[in-house]
Structures are given as structure tokens and as C-alpha cells.
Amino acid sequence: MTNKKKTTIKDIANVLNISPAAVSKALHDDSRISDKTKEAVREVAKELNYQPNHLASALRRGKSNLVGLIVPRTNSNFFSSVIQNIEEVLNKKGYNIIITQSNESFKKECSNIDTLLFTQVDGIIASMANETINLEYFEKIKSKGIPLILFDRGENNLNVDYIGINDYDSSHMIVEHLVKQGCKRIAHIGGYRHTRIFNNRIRGYIDAIKKHNLPLEEDLLVESSLTIEDGREKMKQLLALKKPPDAVYVAADYAALGALQVLEEENIKVPADIALVGFGNEPFTALVTPSITTVNQHSDEIGKQAALTFLERVKSPNKKQTLNKFILEAELIVRESSNKKR
Amino acid sequence: MTNKKKTTIKDIANVLNISPAAVSKALHDDSRISDKTKEAVREVAKELNYQPNHLASALRRGKSNLVGLIVPRTNSNFFSSVIQNIEEVLNKKGYNIIITQSNESFKKECSNIDTLLFTQVDGIIASMANETINLEYFEKIKSKGIPLILFDRGENNLNVDYIGINDYDSSHMIVEHLVKQGCKRIAHIGGYRHTRIFNNRIRGYIDAIKKHNLPLEEDLLVESSLTIEDGREKMKQLLALKKPPDAVYVAADYAALGALQVLEEENIKVPADIALVGFGNEPFTALVTPSITTVNQHSDEIGKQAALTFLERVKSPNKKQTLNKFILEAELIVRESSNKKR
Fold first, then answer.
1. Which part of chain A is CATH 3.40.50.2300?
2. Which InterPro entries match (chains A, B) (predicted)?
3. Is the complex ipTM more than 0.85?
4. Mind listing the pLDDT tens digit for each residue in B43-97?
5. For a Cys staple, A189 with which of A250, B34, B199, B330, CB 3.0–4.6 Å?
6. Would you list which residues of chain B are within 8 Å, Cβ to Cβ, of chain A?
7. B167-297 maps to CATH 3.40.50.2300
8. How far is it, in rounded angstroms, from Cα B8 to Cα A182?
9. Would residue A147 be called left, alpha or beta, if left means φ above 0 and alpha means ψ between -120 and 50 degrees?
């Protein structure tokens, strides 16, 4: 690679015969500059391999142009796809993203919030840890006056923008599908009720079971952290019942995979003897044998909407607080593990 | 959750009957405090649910206690496992981690470096983007005097600490294994040579092929970005040869998955007609049918060593630069896709 002099805003201005200030405004997507000029500036900047000095630019404008993310973990297709989509939208607008993971720990989430506030982020987009009950730290973000947007795992009491799918309806859709396959004894391996999304899935399961006059038994509804290991353990627990289920709806794909492993080990035919449904559309669900029926949570749309909501809040910080509750409809992807009629 | 008064360092000091200063030192792992006292302080802090104020503590000590990570992407089992292990070691030492992804883009990596320097990180642990050839931005980190540690995708010319596996030997191990299975025409779908690890894998492939007197043909060695799509395309290219290979060693698991899809679509028996080996031990390799033979890159050990190397550098910043090159031996995991002798 050659060691040419670094391209400056002035170089771009010279090529286009406009002022350096106009170039700077164009690069920061200033509304006073026409779209045509912005486009031209971006093209020349790209041709000359212009590298903006982020720090200098931030200090000049009193903004960091950083957006902080907090996710339970990054090694889930759902969260990494949401992150990807947030980045795509916000990078184009000149924001950089820094990611932190809570690993489902409340303490770590608090420390992540402190870290992000310390780094002067312009906003925080978060999905809450399983452990989180106390909302003090999220209130702290609000009190700093920077936008807070929650997705997937949110909390009504915080009164902030939220983007997610309709978890209650998703459970209805799943139970409906299993009933159509002829299942009569449907169990649910759910998450913990104190997390809103899992509570909604449990409520949806209970109401759908009642609606179809199916047995609603305490033993058929279990809560867990939904790891692979939890899926294994809870599946064994269900198999040990006097009357085991003929279908199991698991609230997360990794736990569904654990359940499937146990069913294979016990030589139980899936879906003939027990039908299985997961949640989240992790890529492996399409690859295993039998492939696992699951729910598409629209991670791409959730990511995009979270980013756009942030941009909206930054644009009109004093806008009267009308909460954007984007509740998307989930999509059931029927695969071998529950399809008895093929 | 109750709204009790927040626990302070003074509360911990009162319980243990020591000075608040001693508590603070203990919480920051100061060498002047005994391990016994540190242990007692940590226990009481936990019991009282003490939440340290990160910002105040950082300002007091002129340190951010942040470590920045740069990875090509987070949605790979290898990178997320490295991140996990780095966090486990550094969180215990009071460091918080912020993660950025380059998405294999040189420009994004530069902007990530600027972002992390802007947030005053105490060090950067990075794995380079596929696109990166120009090292100017990494030199910038070095010139700031903060530790830079590279893992997996590193670069000799930077003269910094590096942790990775022995890629050259890994290729030898794979070719050796395929020869033992009776394969006589072994192709390699590799990464780009300008990235050190992929260059080492290619060199290892070439030398091992020569050692076993097998045909070393231009058509049998192809380079790509190693996405699923690349794996599909390059596999089709190999199948279209006048003399197709009887084994394919793919330098990354996702590309190996793409190759496997094409082989299945073409009704080619794996491993009987063509044996297949991937690289990276992504979880899906054990789950697909046939399961894919692959290489364990020791992500856990790489993460731990990267974190420990950072701690070492922080402890002795003026230590004469003896580069820690932790080159770990990779491990071949033989599965159905290459095991002809079962």
C-alpha cells in the first residue's frame, strides 16, 4: 500500500469546487445541503479514500456519534442479526456502534450501562438480561436525557420505545399448528415469567390450550433459563411423567435442540410420537435431522426499526413522548419436527 | 425489589472494621492488600450487593478500565467464544469489555479503532478484517502507548503480541488424515493469501501434498472469502473439472457447509466419492448429516491467553518487548464427512 498524504476535507472541496464547510456539512448529513451534493461528496470521498477523524469531529460537535448496544449475548443468530441491521442503518448516518454483553447477569448489565455512559454514547439500544428485575440502571440512562430503545426483552414500566414481536400471538399460532397435526397433550418448556416476552409466551400458551379444551396441567408447563442443558433436563422431566406429552413447544431453539437430543437418545420418533417446536429460527434448526419447526422473530426488521427509532429521537429530542411500540407479527416456519402430514 | 439505600465502600468498611481506603484498594486488587482481606471484602461487597461507580473510579485513577475488542464478526462460534473467554478473565480483574465488529471491512476497522481510542480504552485486542492490508491504523494504537494484542488473524510486521494456532501444521494434519482414508486427489478451498492464517494454511497444504507425492494442480487450489456462497461456488467449480478431486479441505466451516450442500444436491456420496474437511469447529458441523470433520481452534485458550497477555502488558508497561507468540496446536475432530473406514 502506498503512503500517500492523507485526504482532507479540503481535497474533496477542491475537486468539487465547493467550500470545505459544505463538504463537512454534507458528510454529516446536514439538512442544509442538497441530496445531489451529498451524493457527489460521498463519491469523491470514497474515490480519494477519505478517512474521517472521528475524535476531532466529535469534539467539534459535542457529540460522540457512538451508539451503545447491550445484548444478553452475541453468539445467538437473533441478537447478532439485530446488531447487524442496527449497524447497517446507523453506520450510513455516521454513527459507530459499540457492543456489550450482559451474559444474562444483572450485575454485568449495570456495569455495561456505566461503561456506555462513561464513553459518552449518544444513545443506548438494549435487550434485557434474564436476571434483571430492578430497573434503576435503566432509569439512570433516561435521567441522562439520552435516548433509550429496548427490543425483544423490554419492560412496560420503563415507558420507553420498544420493538419486538407479538409473543402472545406466537404461542397461539404454535398451539394451533400442533392441534392441526392431531396433538392432544401439548407441553411448554418456557422461560422465566418475570421476563416479559417469556411471560407473554406462557400466557399465550395457557389461553390457547384453554381455547382448544386441551389438558392444562401444572406438570406440562415448566420454566427454565432455556439453555441446551435446560432443554435436555426438562425434556427428561416431561418423559418421566405418568402421562407424557405428545407435543412440546420450547420457547427457545437451543433448548429445543437439547430436547431433541434426549428424544433421539430415547428412540422416541419425532414427530410421530412427540412433535417438537422451537422459537427463534437459529440457523441450525434447518440443518439438523429432523429439522426443527420454529418461529421467525424478524430480527432484521427489529434491528432496522430500533435504529430508525433512535434516529427519530435524536432528530426531535423534545418531541412529546409518544411511545413507538412496534409489535411485529411472528412467522411460523413448519419443518419436519412437527409436520406429521407429509 | 426493595429500594434500599445504595451500598457504599464505607458500609463494607464498617462491617469488616477496616478503613474505606483499604476497601477501595482491595476492590481494585491493590498489591498492598493481603489476599485474605481482598477475599473478605469481595464477599461482603457481594452480600451487600455493592455496585461500584465505574466512572468515578476511573476518573480517580486516570484509567478507564475498558478493553476494546475488534473482531471481523460476532456471529461466529470461534469469535464469540474468544470474546467470552476474554471477558471471563478481564471482568474478574475489574475490566469491562466493549466489542466492535469490522464485518471484514478495512474502513470499518479503521473507524472501530478511532472509536475505541476515543473511548479511552486501556488496551485493544483484535483480529484483523479480511480486507486489511494497510497497517497504519494499528500502528496508531501502538503509537498511543496502549497495549495491542492480536489473535487468530494477526500480522508479523506489526511486532505485537499474538495468539493463535499453528495453521501450517493444521493443514499437514488434515492432508495426512485424508491420505490415510485413501484419498489421492485433494483440493483446497482456501482463504486469501494476503491474510497470514490463510497463507499458512495454503503453504501447509502445498507442502503436505508434495510430501505425499500427490498431484499439486493449480485448479485444485482456489482462494475465496469463505462464505457459505463461496463454498457453494468453488465446489461447483471443482466438480466441473475434467478430473474432479476425491477430497476437499475447506479453510472455514461455513464454506464447507456450502460445499456439502452442493455435493448433496448433486447426489455425490460423502465421504465415499468425495471426502470433506472444514475448519473451526462451528457447532453446526456436529449437527448436520453427514457431520463434518473439522479443526478445533482452541478459542477458549486463545481468549484466555489474549486476556492474560493484556494484563501482563498493563502490569509491566516498560518491560522490554519480548513478543508472546502463543502458537497452540490445533486438534482434528474426525466425523462422518471424511471417515471412510467406519
1. 65-165+299-328, 167-297
2. HTH_LacI, LacI/GalR-like_sensor, Lambda_DNA-bd_dom_sf, Peripla_BP_I
3. no
4. 888 888 776 655 455 545 667 889 999 999 888 888 989 999 999 999 999 999 9
5. A250
6. 1, 51-55, 58, 64, 66, 73-75, 77, 80-81, 83-84, 87, 91, 96-101, 103, 107-108, 110-112, 114-115, 117-120, 133-134, 257, 283-284, 287-289
7. yes
8. 59
9. beta
